[in-house]
Amino acid sequence: MIHSHDALKLRYSFSDFLFYICLLSVPVITAVLAIYKNSVWWTIAFAGLFVSVTALILRFYCTRCPHYTREGKTLTCIFFWGLPKFFKKRPGKLDAVDMVVTFGATALLLVFPLYWLLMEPGLLIVYLLSLVGFGAAIYRHECKRCIYFECPANRVPEAIKNP
């Protein structure tokens, strides 16, 4: 028997988007506060990096996801709501370049604020705990019912993927 919390998530609602964006805002705001306390210029650099990494993730990861490749000119997923689909759809499995760019860019974004966060131990704790909480929420609530079966984090049981 498949319960609603185990069923595949075919479409997201705006409230799903708000939930995850609120979770994600905690480490982002924490990083910005730590950097801004020391340098406005590095804060601007971090904002630029954030926008650049977002564009890279959209291009190299999201363009393969069924939520991106479906009909419509705008995205409606848990990370992007109403954003135009800037890049060509590329359904299918992530290749080596997709993986290196996606995970490398994400790692760079996560590591960048550590220099300033190490000067603010309280903010560092909030940053790390909020990242763990965000990752755990995604992994626990999304990966086991995600329709992007080719994603390396997908945890949908084989019985549901191939009934």
From TrEMBL:
| Keywords attached to this entry | Membrane, Transmembrane, Transmembrane helix
Residue ranges of the TM segments: 17-36, 42-62, 96-116, 122-139
> Domain of life here?
Bacteria
Q: What is this protein called?
A: Uncharacterized protein
**Lineage of this protein's species?**
Bacteria, Pseudomonadati, Thermodesulfobacteriota, Desulfobacteria, Desulfobacterales
